[in-house]
Specification:
With 708 residues, the protein is an alpha/beta fold. It is built from 28 helices and twelve strands. Strands 1-3-2-5-7-9 form a six-stranded mixed sheet, sandwiched between helices. Strands 4-6 form a two-stranded antiparallel ribbon. Strand 11 and strand 12 form a beta hairpin. Helix 3 runs antiparallel to helix 4. The termini are far apart.
Length: 708
């Protein structure tokens, strides 16, 4: 993924080409076999160290020989070396996406294509990583450009940083031969800051820390400091041979032992980073006992030569293949993907990379290279916008069909509400909104900014419903993202009834006294923040004195539960909720628990529907599976408190056998488990009936609301 020095250069190190081959093979194998090469993602970190070493070696030589660095020439060389192949693959990926991927993936694909063309993909993914609404986004053909974006940002800043350090050294009046030591000291401090940042950020928010540039700078700097130490590429010292093999062992160990639960990058990234440093220090010799000897063999060098293009091509092929063949990739399919990746990478190296690096029309002046980069990036961004525009045109065409669907009186949950002649529950007309529009709710939520993130304990509040300064009632809506999914419904209820609704929601934080546990939770900071948040919400609601009711919802079946410190619940899953609700009920508040929505098969429901346009039931689930283990209903029954009630909408999702993902031509879910805004709004009349029934029963002391 970094520039390959011309082989005529006496400083060319063939074993580093072989190391680059190891890195890219680890990444490819990880993407093809994520359950086996579970830590193969560390191949990217190997690339980062190599980048820091090679680029800093070049800059240090220029500083030594000329006393300065030509930033324009440096950046122009990077443009010629990296961007032609990058933009060719981006353009090809856009075409593949339009030809083979369902329209439900187009919006996110267009965003990531544009971000990749501008080399800010890592920041977009970091933003999506902390946005729980985007957590179920299906990977796009351009997602792997995050690491290229990090590298390009490194190339943009690094030479300027080294030049500034060199000028500071010159101003200090120190001897010229001490310049490398001065640079080394400066980079050492930068490494310490970045490494510390990486450890802290990974602990606080691992999902975002994985992508952002500051957490990765120390990896480049590790290679950079090695370049300034100027270790010879060859040597007879006895320790070089075992050092090289130990370095490779560290890289392979990380690739095998690390997995999605590893706190990465953080301090764990030191294993592959130091392993890479060790391999580079070990260098090369003619002895077959030297790792460098094996890395410098022609097959390894060949893979290293095409490694950049291999990295570019392998991912879009992996993403597109199942959609193009309409089946998951088999072992034979994966072998074909590897072969196709190799052939495309070789062709790109020969016909794009090499000509781009030496083309006279690009290299005659740095400004030609910059103009090429700007124009090509604009073309990719405009093309990405075109994909999105086509999505809008499809939506507009479907608009005209919507009125006919609603006019038939068989739209949405009404088909399950009453005896009718609507035909199949899932409907037989056009889906409205279409799947590609529903899935966009994951990246363009209707109530942006109204849900707290995975970390942090501050209260994120929004007011929805009536805008009347004297509302008829003020209620709270509390919970995790499964409370957020009801915002559009309660906005309509508030406007209809004159209610002011204050929302308190936080991603992945159920409103319980128990400690909620996630299967792949990375840090205790996320877990602790949930407990503190729930305490703060409870205190705020009780202390304010303005609320008459609290509506709460949680994705209760998604978690495991443990006892909090100092408390011994017999069943934390049930009793944790009861304990939390009783605090509110004992303060005189009515607590209305919105029952869990039925579980799906997993995976994006809109994508499933787009892939099965003639068989909507292929995406549905059996009632027993969809309704298994419902914690909230058990908790309400266990509470047996006159002010704690269950409001269950199951009847509008399920018939006697099946829980549907489409009801009356209306898509129920926007992803794998959150209901769509359209379905939530369609449930408003039935929610109001249930609320009215509940209040009548409460006044008559007849108990809680039953399943409507």
């Amino acid at each position: 993924m970094v520039a390959t020095p011309p082989q005529s250069d006496s400083r060319f190190r063939p074993e580093i080409q072989g190391l680059r081959a190891v890195a890219v093979l680890l990444v490819v194998l990880f993407h093809l076999f994520p359950g086996r090469i579970t830590g193969g993602f560390i191949g990217v970190d190997v690339f980062f160290v190599i980048s820091g070493y090679l680029i800093t070696s070049h800059i240090a030589r220029e500083l030594r020989d000329t006393g300065t660095v030509s930033l324009r020439r440096f950046w122009a060389r990077r443009v010629r070396r990296l961007l032609p192949a990058s933009f060719v693959v981006l353009a090809a990926s856009a075409v593949l996406a339009v030809l083979f991927l369902p329209a439900t993936m187009w919006e996110n694909t267009s965003r990531q294509l544009a971000a990749s063309a501008l080399y800010v993909q890592n920041w977009l993914l970091a933003s999506d990583a902390v946005d729980y609404l985007a957590a179920d986004n299906v990977p796009t053909v351009a997602q792997h450009y995050w690491s290229l974006s990090v590298e390009e940002q490194f190339y943009l800043v690094w030479p300027a940083l080294l030049l500034i350090l060199a000028l500071l050294h010159r101003k200090s009046g120190r001897a010229v031969h001490l310049q490398s030591r001065f640079l080394l000291a400066g980079l050492g401090m930068l490494t310490a800051v970045s490494f510390t940042w990486s450890v802290i950020a990974t602990y606080q928010d691992q999902a975002s820390a994985y992508f952002i540039t500051p957490t990765r700078v120390w990896e480049f700097a590790a290679g950079a400091m090695l370049a300034l130490v100027a270790v010879e590429a060859t040597g007879t010292q006895w320790w070089r041979r075992p050092l090289g093999w130990l370095g490779l062992a560290a890289i392979v160990a990380a690739a095998i032992m690390f997995d999605s639960a590893t706190m990465f990058p953080g301090y764990t990234a030191a294993l592959p980073v130091l392993g890479t440093v060790a391999v580079i220090v070990a260098g090369n010799s003619k002895s077959w006992l030297s790792l460098g000897h094996w890395l410098a063999l022609r097959p390894m060098r060949f893979v290293g030569d095409i490694s950049y293009s291999v990295y570019l091509w392998h991912w879009p092929l992996i993403i597109v293949w199942p959609y193009a063949t309409n089946s998951p990739a088999s072992i034979a399919d994966k072998a074909v993907i590897v072969i196709a990746t190799g052939l495309l990478a070789w062709a790109t190296k020969v016909w794009v990379e090499d000509p781009g690096r030496s083309a006279r029309w690009l290299s005659s002046t740095p400004w030609h290279s910059f103009a090429f980069a700007a124009v090509t990036a604009v073309v990719i961004v405009v093309g990405s916008w075109g994909i999105h525009a086509e999505l809008d045109r499809r939506t507009a065409r479907t608009n005209s069909e919507h009125a006919d669907v609603v006019a038939r009186g068989c739209y949405g949950p009404v088909v399950l509400a009453i005896a009718n002649e609507c035909g199949p529950v899932e409907g037989s007309g056009p889906l409205w909104p279409p799947p590609e529009v529903v899935v966009s709710q994951n990246t363009n939520p209707l109530f942006r900014g109204c849900q707290g993130g995975l970390v942090g304990t501050g209260l994120t509040q929004c007011e929805i419903g009536t805008s009347d300064p004297t509302p008829s009632r003020t209620v709270a809506l509390v919970g995790d993202s499964h409370a957020t999914q009801w915002f559009s419904a309660f906005e309509a209820i508030g406007r209809d009834r004159g209610w002011r609704i204050v929302t308190f929601s936080k991603a992945s934080c159920p409103f319980t006294d128990a400690i909620r546990l996630l299967e792949n939770e990375q840090t205790s900071a996320e877990r602790d923040s949930c407990e503190q948040w729930a305490d703060a919400v409870t205190e705020e609601i009780i202390a304010s004195g303005e609320f008459s009711q609290v509506y709460t919802a949680s994705f209760a079946t998604a978690y495991a539960y443990a006892n909090p410190a100092g408390t011994e619940f017999a069943d934390p899953a049930v009793e944790g909720y009861v304990s939390r609700w009783q605090q509110l009920a004992d303060a005189g508040l009515d607590v209305i628990v919105l029952g869990e929505v039925p579980r799906t098969k997993g995976g994006s429901v809109p994508n499933c529907l787009a892939a099965n346009p003639e068989n909507r039931l292929a995406c549905a689930s059996g009632r027993e599976v969809a309704l298994a283990g419902r914690v909230l209903a058990q908790a309400v029954a266990s509470a047996d408190h006159p002010q704690i009630h269950l409001l269950d909408m199951t009847h509008y999702f399920c018939d006697t056998d099946t829980c549907h993902t489409v009801v009356g031509d209306l898509i129920v879910y926007r992803d794998s488990n959150h209901i769509s805004a359209g379905f939530a709004i369609a449930l408003v009349p039935y929610l109001l009936d249930a609320i009215d029934s509940f209040e009548y029963q409460s006044e008559s002391s007849q108990g809680p609301v039953a399943d409507q």
